[in-house]
Amino acid sequence: DVVFPLEGQDVVFPLYDKVKPEHVVPGMRALLAQLHKDIDALEASVQPSWEGLVEPLERLTDRHQRTWGIVSHLKGVADSEALRAAVEEVQPENVALGLRLAQSKPLYGAFKALKEGPAWETLTEAQKRVVDIELRDFVLGGVALEGEAQERYNAIQQQLAQLSTKFSNNVLDATKAFKKLVTDVSELEGLPPTALGLAAQQARSAGHDKATAEAGPWLLTLDFPSYYPVMTHAKNRALREEMYRAYITRASAGELDNSPIIEQVLSLRKEKAQLLGFANFAELSMASKMANLDRAEELLEELRDKSFAAAKADLADAQAHAAANGHDGELLWWDVAFWAERLREAKYDLKDEELRPYFALPAVLDGLFKVAKRLFDIDIVPADGEAPVWQSDVRFFKLMTNGAPRAYFFLDPYSRPAEKRGGAWMAEVVGRSKLLPAAAGSPPGSPRLPVAHMVCNQSPPVDGQPSLMTFREVETLFHEFGHALQHMMTTVDEGLVAGIRGVEWDAVELPSQFMENWCYDKPTLYSFAKHYQTGEPLPEDMFARLKAAKTFRSGTMMLRQVHFSSIDLELHSRFTPGAGESVFDRDAAVAQKTQVMPSFPQDRFLCSFSHIFAGGYSAGYYSYKWAEVLSADAFGAFEEAGLDDDAAVVATGRRFRDTVLALGGSKAPERVFELFRGRQPSTEALLRHNGLLVAA
């Protein structure tokens, strides 16, 4: 059976080890044909009731999302020419099925009748929320369009899907295309041993079999674990400039140029929004979020105002430190990270490299699972070998409560620049649902349990050592685990609003950003910060310096996020493509308010800004800041209860578990937040955590 590897017998754990690119087209086509028949049958017999409408729709959409999810996951972690070609071939048919569902007048009519009819009052709160979200999404999906308008809308959706994939492919290929082989170690002066080890390992995998960390040759790439140490540690200014220019202009020229794709995407999104009756794409995007354009921009302006002076001071401090240490002239774009790092080392006597040996991945995971046990009373148990994986480094775990499985997750931790896209993410394999069949061997009547994958791009193990993580990589792991917890810890049985489903996009970063705070909590950090060779705990004074350095350059960091969020909203609300001004001109104009240095004239960062051109964050990047207000305020509840009072921390942790993590999309996010915090959110905690209240 050709569909077999895509839809395995035990659908909860996909057969990742068996799926080949050649299965994708026939497997998806067979599935799509079946689903079209299922939609025909449902449209013909639909009843405006939960059993006659919502349940069959959940079965149908779940089968589609679960199977396409396998394909898109492998595209992200194990890309290949063959897989690209398969995705390109079948993607239009896949989009067409989504459009058919989103614009089905019989199904839309049934949802309206369900809301307006007598059955409405028999529904639970979660079920009502499902119906309301479906009604909203039908309208945003073009159900009310007729004739030519609907044809044009559908053509736009097809084009946008193709452009998004192309954008993403170009970024991966452009990142992969840059390779700099260095044979003279003096060119790499300042680079820490871990970076030299990684560069030699990259050289070996490129065919330089004899490469060693000490003798080279060394291969540098634009993959973040390779690029970032050069920008922060290499004394060789010409090398920093070369790498910076290559990184900031990725996918902006030649065959891989994303500039025309950006123009097309913006223009199509604007047209799509106007077809649906919105003034611009930002308003369409906000129609399904907590914020609206005015509220989002008000928040960004408040944060910009509170951080601008601090960011100016950050730059002046770095400039002064550079001048005092022999740097001549103004700092340029490829100098700032280097001198800021020297200043951080001088000010806090803190070197990332000295911290790494205390953050070996196995120990960090152990500590992460301990804090989850303490706060949420769950046990995470290794279950490697119990589900197929796509790569030998991938780990598999069970989340247990009271001795019984509650959820499962995969962890793919290391960077693989040849086949895996950059960044870190969490995605669902399957969600919790009482309607859908549980994994083989589950007790009768039990709901299907959630399965997640967490994907990171951290430093791989080098020369027989475990993966030694930077502190930022530790925070990233905690962040993705926060997302996974909201997916896995849900107690909602209605699949369409369980876990992260049905959670407004600008609230979805709450649990992930919340978890990052625990990296600075002393008992939590000391549960895993042990030297990987000696077992010695992180020295106390080092922890004190790490904590003190938390707000180092926080004005700069805040402003950077405000800039990304502002240009995103600007391009999607006030920019007109093809009117003579380029997106890069507009980026530079926005930067006059959101950057303390003049813009780099050749800055083409937008060409690799996958979040907004190939991810879910278009006119939504502000969500990181919006949700960080919520997450900082949520952590504030633990601070108020007293981080030193174990009983209070445990009680507050259980409350967070039973609201934010449990309720998923079954209630509006502002309601969930109030249930946890007892009031509306405030920006005070976010500004305080970033040391920006004083400046304000």
Description:
The protein is of the alpha+beta class and 696 residues long. Among the domains are: 21-144, Glutathione S-transferase Yfyf (Class Pi), Chain A, domain 2, CATH 1.20.1050; 179-249, no CATH class; 356-485 and 517-549, Neurolysin, domain 3 (Orthogonal Bundle). It has helices at 21-45, 50-77, 81-102, 105-116, 125-140, 147-177, 193-205, 224-233, 237-248, 259-275, 281-286, 293-324, 336-348, 352-355, 361-376, 471-488, 510-516, 522-526, 540-548, 554-573, 583-594, 610-613, 623-641, 646-661, 669-677, 684-689; strands spanning 179-182, 218-221, 379-382, 395-401, 404-414, 425-430, 451-458. It has a 5-stranded mixed β-sheet, sandwiched between helices. Helix 1 (21-45) runs parallel beside helix 3 (81-102) and helix 2 (50-77) runs antiparallel to helix 3 (81-102). The protein is globular.
Describe what is shown at a glance.
It contains 26 helices and 7 strands.
User: Which class do the helix and strand fractions yield?
Assistant: alpha+beta
- State the helical fraction: 40-55%
Largest sheet: 5 strands, mixed
Taking Cα atoms only, what radius of gyration do you get, to the nearest Å? Answer: 25 Å
User: Based on CA inertia axes, which overall geometry fits?
Assistant: globular
Cross-sheet strand order for the largest sheet: 3-4-5-7-6
User: Mean pLDDT score, rounded?
Assistant: 95
Q: Would you tell me which CATH topology of one domain applies?
A: Neurolysin, domain 3
Name of the CATH class of one domain: Mainly Alpha
Residue share in β-strands = 5-15%
Number of helices: 26
Task: State the separation between the terminal residues, measured CA to CA.
Answer: 65 Å
Q: Which parts are unreliable, with pLDDT below 50 for 5 consecutive residues or more?
A: none
The name of the CATH architecture of one domain is Orthogonal Bundle
Got a strand count?
Answer: 7
Cofactor: Zn(2+)
EC number: 3.4.24.70
Enzyme class: hydrolase
Protein name: oligopeptidase A
